[in-house]
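The following record pairs a protein chain with its ligand, MRU.
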Amino acid sequence: MDDSTLQSIRYHRGSLQLLDQRKLPLNTIYLEIRDAVEAWEAIREMVVRGAPAIAIAAALSLAVETCKLLEGFTGTSKDAASFLINKLEFLVSSRPTAVNLADAASKLTEIVTNSAATATHANQVFQAYIDAAETMLEDDVASNKAIGSHGSSFIQNLNNKVSVLTHCNTGSLATAGYGTALGVIRALHADGVLDRAYCTETRPFNQGSRLTAYELVHEKIPATLIADSAAAALMKTGRVHAVIVGADRVAANGDTANKIGTYSLALSAKHHGVLFFVAAPLTSVDLSLASGDEIVIEERPAKELLNTHGGLGEQVAASGILVWNPAFDVTPANLISGIITEKGVITKTGNEFDIKGFINKIRSNN
Ligand code: MRU
């Protein structure tokens, strides 16, 4: 990967380091992750966050643990498969809303199950797992670059110079590299059509001010930070042409779970006639859910609202106050103008997205 790119995940066979995103933007500290238990804790505690990055960090943590088993595992190939499948199930329990990890776990489970069916030695199953997890790392960067390029081309056709608003962090730090919604912003900038990117603070965890602002400055993209509560006022000025956000889970009808506050932005965009795009890999689509009503929304600890620095800093709220801290909300499909994926932009036919049809068409073309 390009050395100038911020890396949330540093991996080579047998070694995984995660950038402790809780310490950004002031300190760059990588934590060594030796196994699935350490990855589970790192995901739960927000060392690594962002739907694609969570999936890849989890998969690679188990690859590192598996590497150590290549010498000395005494079980059969079926035992090796059971070991891996149990660990994957455990990793999926770390955070509930983003589907990317569950999707990765299900694909990896299929790979180890198939491998165990023919393998004569446990190491063949372990090796199949390691290879597949490493491929996921490479595929994510390629898929983000494709999202960026499809999104930029689509938006350029609407306007020749654009300013966009984004929410949360969807950049190199939230993925294996390049980013989804922030990838589109990077591509717009590289194509010379981006006037300005606005990013929200993204209370209460401040992924916007701590991470997205950091990435935008790092990439030298013209950018302005706003308080979440300034978004409607900004849209009213006419300075924003499109809102572009990521996704943690997209239901079959296009309803999209993303960072808390996304729904408010979509409502505001609709009111002000601003386009609203979701940028996400197809691994964020969950066709098993008919609508967003079925998406489980994670509730985070009260301390993230009561204290600064995601709960690690000083207390700022009154002692004794009750807290409701949902980490995500669901934006209904009727507020979404298009879903930018690595295979193209899904737009509506009539008033509805046909995501299943889009995916089937891709499969039949391959
Ligand atoms: O709670 P987080 O920081 O993991 O939430 C991240 C988001 O909501 C992102 O916008 C989403 O995962 C898309 S990441 C490319």
